[in-house]
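Appendix B, record 7
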Amino acid sequence: CVMGCPYEGDIAPEKVADIAKHLYEMGAYEISLGDTIGIGTPEQVVKLLTMVGGVVPTEKLAMHFHDTHGRALDNIRAGIELGVNVVDASVAGLGGCPYADGASGNVATEDVIHMLNGLGIATNVNIDAIIETAWFISDHLGREPISKIANMIR
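Structure tokens (predicted):
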């Protein structure tokens, strides 16, 4: 909950940077910064990554954004522009945050791939196969994918 916590409220970027630094010094090979309740903004991402990137090499960072307020893709783009190139995502936007009422699922893999393709960033991922998988899983769950691109194509 690097942007905010359902129990503690706003989280200071300095605190996240301090914890990330300690994890890195202990040997963590990757530190995933998660906006688990999906409240972050691109401006917050820039501030956070600037602070954390000052104490941990950017290539050791990953991003994990939920799409509660529809800003996950914008937040990912902000992180990519700062050099982070590892992004967690979930096919069809499956998942959630069981300890934060109202928090939505993870950002949909197929939306992230679609955005990256549009930015000219090679992913080597077959987006059609991901969309097909999103619908396969969603049909079995009796719901539509959270993904915008999957809902546009079917």
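Remarks on this record: DSSP finds six helices and five strands in the chain. The radius of gyration is 16 Å.
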